[in-house]
Every structure is written in structure tokens, then in C-alpha cells.
Amino acid sequence: MGNKFISMMKKDNKDGSKSKRMNRSQRKLLADEEMLHRRALSMAIHQAQISQRFDGSMSRRVGSTSTRKQRTLSDPFSNGKQVPDFSESLIVKKFVLVHGEGFGAWCWYKIVASLEESGLSPTTIDLTGSGFNMTDINTVSTLEEYSKPLIEHLGNLPEEEKVILVGHSTGGASISYALERFPEKISKAIFVCATMLSDGQRPFDVFSEELGSAEQFMTESQFLIYGNGKDKPPTGFMFEKQHMKGLYFNQSPNKDIALAMISMRPVPLGPMMDKVSLTSERYGKGRRFYVQTLDDRALSPDIQEKVVRENSPEGVFKIKGSDHCPFFSKPQSLHKILLEIAQIP
């Protein structure tokens, strides 16, 4: 009896220790996720002026890069390799990075670091209702409203200054719209597995083969958000975490997936259903380049090929082994392509 009691006590102690270990493990996981979140967000705002109030519309890289020489990247994705300083050979040195649906400026943290190490000047934008921009997505009904932070940034550029725009996924719709509005401000537009639109097309149309027709999605999708009540049209959508992991991050590192899971936000539906008016005189004269991701489950390689075929860009680049988020899964390859496009005369 005594031995049995002692055995039960030991079992209880073991269970208690196991519970404590699990609690410690959970706390460590939460702490790691918080660290990852802060790391990415700090990449977007680290060099902002202390006196400048961050209003959520963008995070601007402000440090001088003109004196940078070859340096070794400290980030783990660099593999300790030296990154050449390309700033002397480029006329346009400023990149504006535009995220896709559900993401924010934070998703570019690896690319921001590598571009800066190459002597270039990247700016990351939070579109309306995304990232640090706290606008209620249920109030964002048009692509114009959604793209407002990008348009304001371009409108505030000095008269003779040009930038290279980079848009990911549905961020391609925003840079298409920007090309129509400010063709004189944009040296090149780079679409990264993105919605490179034609006149009269909706951003959602590019995904229709994957998600069904817009009308079907609006009435049948289980991911819809009804911000104005169930009796009103849907105002946004948000995929479930498990669904997002398989759709967007099938080749991305676990730490970046964890970062995305705590950082992604619902997507305003109105801008995705908004038809874009693009003219040959403005949008049509822009220099467009497309980056295809060949292990993409959100926008399949076949659909990306169709986008390129129907709306031919100046150049097409491909990344093998990349999911829908090459800034996570293949940051070195994406960085190399961005530099290569920047150097095209």
C-alpha cells in the first residue's frame, strides 16, 4: 500500500513537472513570437526620425546610404556572404515596397536589410487598413482608398525624383493604379507573383481560377467578414491560419510563418472587387517586370504565366522553390532579381 502511494505521488509529481514544462514551453513560444514580430516591425521603423510621429501610413528608411561600402549581412539568410554596393552604378536608388493582401510593411524585413546593405534606399508602405495603418477595413471600399498611402508618398516626392515600385500579390493592383496616376515618378514597376492588371480588370479576377468567380466568392465563401451586419454585403475576408499556411507559406521558414500568423490582418473586400481604369498613354508606357514563383499555391505558376501572356511586361524572372512569399522563402533570389532589374538601362 505504501509503495503504491509513493508510486502515485511520483506520478503526480511527474504530471506536475510535465505541466510546468508545457507552461514554460508555451511561454517561450509566445516570447519568441513577440520577438519575431518586433524584429520585423522594427525593420520598417528603425531609422525613422525620433521626432517624427509614426502615423501608420508608412515606415520610411531615412538613413544615408551613400557612404556604404561592401559589408557582410548579419541576418541569417545571408549565409555570411558579402553584398556589393550597387549604389554608384544605379541612377534610381530608391525602392518602394508594397505588400499584398493581409500583409503589411513588416513582411519585407529581409529585403529591406539586403537592399540597404547593397547601398540602396528602400521604403515600405502600409496600405490602408494594413500593418500599422489602423483604419477600419470595413470602411475601405475602393482601390483608390486602399492605395492612398502609396499615392500620397509618390505625390510628395520631389519633382525630378523617381522610384522603383515593387508590389507583391494584390499589391500589384496598387502599383498598377500608381503607374496610371504617376507614370513620371516610376522608373520601373516590379510585380512579384502579383496582380498585374489590364484595363477594366479587378484584382480578384486574377485569383478567380483559384477562388471561383467574384460573385460566387461574395455569396458562398466561408472566409467573408460582414462588418456592417449579415444583412449587408461582406466588407472583408480572412483565411483561417491553417489555410494560410498551406496557401502562402508552403516553402517558408517556420519562424517567418509564426511571424505572419500573429501579424496578418483581414483584407478589405471592396478594393479587390474594384475595376481599374488603365490607359495606354499612362499605364501602358510604364516599364513593367514580372517575378514568377514556381512553387506557389496561392497564385499558381500557370495563372502567373497567363497574367504575363495577356499583359506582356518588359521582362520576366522566375524563382524556383519559392512559395507565394519569396521575401520569406527565397529572399536572396528575390534580392538578386531586384538588383538585376534595377540595373537594366
Automatic annotation (TrEMBL):
It comes from the Eukaryota. GO terms for biological process: jasmonic acid metabolic process; salicylic acid metabolic process. Pfam families: Abhydrolase_6 (PF12697). The keyword Hydrolase applies. Residues 1-26, 56-79 are annotated as: Disordered. The keyword Hydrolase applies. Residues 95-332 form the AB hydrolase-1 domain. Residues 62-79 have a biased composition (Polar residues). Residues 9-18 have a biased composition (Basic and acidic residues). SUPFAM superfamilies: alpha/beta-Hydrolases (SSF53474). Keywords: Hydrolase. One of its GO terms (molecular function) is methyl jasmonate esterase activity. PANTHER family: METHYLESTERASE 14, CHLOROPLASTIC-RELATED (PTHR10992:SF785), METHYLESTERASE FAMILY MEMBER (PTHR10992). This is AB hydrolase-1 domain-containing protein. It comes from Arabis nemorensis.
